[in-house]
Specification:
about 150 residues, mainly alpha
Length: about 150
Amino acid sequence: MLVSGGVLMLDKQTRSTEQQGKDKGFRVKYINSRFALPLIWIGVFIVLYFWNSGTSSSVTRYALRVTDFSGIWHLIQEEFPLLLFIIAAVILTIFAVIRQLSLIPVLGLLTNFYLMAQLGITNWMRFIIWLIVGLVIYFTFGNKNSKLKI
């Protein structure tokens, strides 16, 4: 996700410098998200509709799972990441259409965020623990060895 976001930022800077007549530098194949991304979402919804059309009881099972408050922790574990992905995907799609971002990095962001949303809670806990350990080591080393130390 960070690489795709970085590509979007570099592409934005490159387009602004090209307009000023400076060196081209970093370039990304530009496909306008304004037209392609809504078509992709329509295709995804059509595929999901026909994929789930034979299992009408799955909607009923999902509704029963959501209204069953005895397993609220299980619901948060299983459904919250997907809900977070859907909210982020809608926001990113609107942002990409308005700003006319390049389609390739936007699809990279959406794909990676979906894969991250499918990870289990154990993986996220390990990630957070190792992130904290790494940041402590990084800032401790940086503080001791900084040439700008006051």
